[in-house]
């Protein structure tokens, strides 16, 4: 009888385990949270959910109006158009920023900077991001101009830019949700990243959120790099 009772107990435990396993498998499961792979600058979870209006406004602002239309790309196309397009040799990680002084700063500087990851190094390019005005045309003249933005290039160890990485990763600057970016408040702060074909961007040009952190990032960038040559625009003789 004791052996039989033990067998009954064992079967009871086994059936209970099977039932519990079945309940776990069949019950509604919480969504699996997928995180971006490790990158030099951590990527905000959730990425760029374009169902939110501020995100769509952010992306359209690149091509619509305001200061952002003067974004001085360091390549043939802006990062938002290049990221994930599948071209051969696309870098695994590229970080870009349009960032600079407040409007009221004398001799205001604005940089367009890109940093491409290559192992333990970053290939850095910087151009003058400030818009330049074309000369006034003469009465009846069809004005032709050429804009030049010389590029400053550097290769820097990631370890040497640890303070830049820390400043960029400030929660209010990089991780906080995007808010309405359709304004000009005097500080240009537009951050982008392309990691394994996934695009992320934040604009902190509007409002106070992240403004102090953005100026910390700007000061640290300037501590590591000199100003790029100034942009120029010249008149081109008509053919």
Structure in words:
The chain has 239 residues and is α+β, with helices and mostly antiparallel strands. It has one domain (53-235). Helix content is 26%, strand content 22%. The chain has 6 helices and 8 strands. The strands form 2 sheets. Strands 5-3-2-1-6-7 form a 6-stranded antiparallel beta sheet. Strands 4-8 form a two-stranded antiparallel ribbon. A hairpin with a 2-residue loop joins strand 2 (110-118) and strand 3 (121-128). Helix 4 runs antiparallel to helix 6 (211-224). It is globular, with a radius of gyration of 26 Å. The N and C termini lie far apart (110 Å). The model is unreliable at 1-36 and 65-72 (pLDDT under 50).
Strand content: 15-25%
Across the major sheet, the strand order is 5-3-2-1-6-7
Q: Assign an overall shape.
A: globular
Q: Counting H and I runs of at least 4 residues, what is the number of helices?
A: 6
- Structural class from helices and strands? alpha+beta
SSE succession: HHHEEEEEHHEEHE
What topology does this entry show?
Layout: H1 2-26, H2 53-60, H3 79-82, E1 93-100, E2 110-118, E3 121-128, E4 145-148, E5 152-157, H4 162-168, H5 171-175, E6 189-195, E7 198-203, H6 211-224, E8 232-235
Antiparallel strand pairs: 1-2, 1-6, 2-3, 3-5, 4-8, 6-7
